Amino acid sequence: MSRWQQKSIPFEADASERPWSFPYLLLEGEAAHPKVTIIAAIHGDELNGIRILHELAAYLEETGIPVKGSICLVPVANLMGYTNHSRYLPDRRDLNRMFPGLREGSEGARLAYFIWSHFACDADFLVDVHSGSYNRWNFPHVRGDMKNETMRFYASRLQDQLILTSTGVIGSLRKEAGKLNKPVFLIEAGETGRFEKKIVGAGLVILLQILDAFGFIKYNAEKIGTPIGLQNAPQKEAPRGYYRKAIWQRATHAGLFIPRVDAGAYVSRGDVLGDITDLLGKKRAEILAHEDGRILGMHLHPQVVPGRALFHVAYDFKKF
Ligand SMILES: [Zn+2]
ω before 140 within 30° of 0 (cis)? Predict the structure, then answer.
């Protein structure tokens, strides 16, 4: 019999009077608390996180690793956006700007309140899984508030991960949970609208390391073996520390964008990150790195205009 309980909580009905029902998985170990809740698809088209949660559930089931406290997995927080293949809610609002929500508020605020009250409030620890938006691909990395000593301690226990200090924007699950002093990490992984096998594998390892850092499991990668889908995960060279800043390097010209580096790459100031050509293939501009750092994410679509965000570069590295 599975250790996971399959559960769901009903929410209001849609316009055709079909009630929404939010499914989740709960694994209760030795006790109900501490409890970690892991939420994916707050942006409804960011699908990698859903699969990462599936694989985490399968992994903990197959290995039978002892779990302290309980683990709650919410694979799709924004069911309405997910149904529409959209990042946003049907009213075009961003669910991740509406936390902690309002019970009698707008439709988005009500959903935020539902997610907040049913899944976030009761959690002692939170993890929120995202992917790059709008034609962007994010190298698998971790974001958290490294100014917070407790969070820095948890982050220092992660192995070979790219970490950016960030508290999130007002109204995001991460920001609002952080205000309550709940330890919360955000994982960024890949792009929207896909299950990317390597990204899912890398995300699974990040999650297992976070669960270990929080004290829920003892995760020994060598002893337990390679998690499902991890083969060739691009995670090997990350240093032990975190980046304190990040900037977007933008297109200087209109034209066709040709990246010269991949997300995850280390770059030095002055390195050529990419070119922009005209329609006949003649080079119009080179995008040069402004900082020594590491590429967190990059633009995927070749057609660009001036100002288009091309590379998200983390810099100002600090060792733990
Ligand atoms: Zn997102």
Answer: no
